[in-house]
Amino acid sequence: MKIITVRLAGRSYPIFVGTKILSHLAPLLREQAGWSQLVLLTDTTVAGLHLERVRTVIPGNVTLITIPAGELSKSLAQLGELFDRFAEIRLGRRDVLLTFGGGVVGDLGGFAAATWHRGIRYLQIPTTLEAAVDASIGGKTGINHAGGKNLIGAFHQPSAVLIDTDFFATLGLRDLAAGLAESIKHAALTSAAFLDWHEQHADAILARDPATLAELVARNCEIKADVVCRDEREADVRRILNYGHTIGHAIEHLLAFELRHGECVGLGMLVENEIAHRRGLLPRSEADRVRAVLARFGLPLKLPQTLDAAAVLEACRSDKKAQAGHVPFALIAGIGQPQIASEIDAADVKAALRVIDPNL
Ligand SMILES: NC(=O)c1ccc[n+]([C@@H]2O[C@H](COP(=O)([O-])OP(=O)(O)OC[C@H]3O[C@@H](n4cnc5c(N)ncnc54)[C@H](O)[C@@H]3O)[C@@H](O)[C@H]2O)c1
Ligand SMILES: [Zn+2]
């Protein structure tokens, strides 16, 4: 088992990564002093596949809350239902929430934990690769609004994250690849060697080999933890993690969640790389490297339908990171060379979108 520490003043917490490490949950819960109730939050799919394994290692009484699987659960209505249950069982301020599922369960549960009694403790047990390499780390929690993704949220760090890569055995290929897109994002931002590693280990990754996935997850946790420690609230360096996401979120929003989040991030990276190339920042060969690795894992390289460039631009401008209509972009100037561009140019976006247009 590998332990990565997210070092934050007064609120450092461990991420445990390994295979067959779920039994570690019991001692971890004993370390959280003072709780009398536990809530286990999961979704319908994860409950059907893995609930028993988790229940057997949880000591004492636990209230199970199961939400419908899927992005639509990151809603005010679902949050309201959670609070109703918390009130019903009189969940106290020293009680603990366990989020057991993908990024949806983690983001919604984390936000519920951030706001119930002005903040209770929670532990993340991610079951998707997406959540393991990205969503469960760093304390960003939230829900969606009709006006945009993750518009309502809070920073609230978990008390611990426990990642058992055996859960990934049941992930469908699309969900596995969607998580890999975030890993490829981390690699493109930080290290050519790690990007190569993905290709070298592609067969083992696609076979969901638990040890290889543990290595991959641990590396991602180190990368993300390092950035979060330097800039928890995204004033500065954490903004680089938005690489692929400005365009990616716009696509996700316009397609009404037809594609996985990670698939949209992959497409977002392709477009943003093209923007960087058009600006003379990124050599074509480096953009092609990223494309090849995305392709190796079967991630989409084209949109399912043509999107109107003006609509994409508009969606970017209503992104919550936009300031007075200005959209800061995280680009790369080469593998391992992130750069923040202060403004996005409509003509650039229009031209760059052509690289993922299905008709071109
Ligand atoms: N907070 C952050 O920093 C952050 C970072 C990245 C992504 N996110 C958010 O995470 C969400 C996407 O995460 P996701 O892809 O995990 O979505 P998800 O939680 O919807 O999971 C995807 C699907 O996989 C199913 N599933 C979960 N575990 C499984 C398993 N072990 N085997 C089989 N199926 C399983 C789920 O039921 C769901 O149907 C988005 O809402 C995104 O905004 C947040
Ligand atoms: Zn993401």
Task: Walk me through this protein's architecture.
The protein has 360 residues and is α/β, with parallel strands linked by helices. It is built from 14 helices and 11 strands. Strands 1-2-9-6-5-3-4 form a 7-stranded mixed sheet, sandwiched between helices. Helix 5 (129-135) runs parallel beside helix 9 (210-230) and helix 6 packs across helix 9 (210-230). The longest helix has 21 residues, at 210-230. It is globular and about 60 Å long. The site of nicotinamide-adenine-dinucleotide has 30 residues, from helix 2, helix 4, helix 5 and helix 6.
Index terms:
binds nicotinamide-adenine-dinucleotide, 45% helix, alpha/beta, 360 residues, single chain, binds zinc ion, two-stranded antiparallel ribbon, 7-stranded mixed beta sheet, 11 strands
Number of strands: 11
β-sheet strand percentage: 15-25%
**Main pleated-sheet profile:** 7 strands, mixed
Provide mean pLDDT, rounded. Answer: 94
In brief:
The protein has helices at about 25-30, 45-55, 75-90, 105-115, 130-135, 175-190, 190-200, 200-205, 210-230, 245-255, 260-280, 285-295, 310-315, 345-355; strands at about 1-5, 15-20, 40-45, 60-65, 95-100, 120-125, 140-145, 150-155, 160-165, 330, 340.
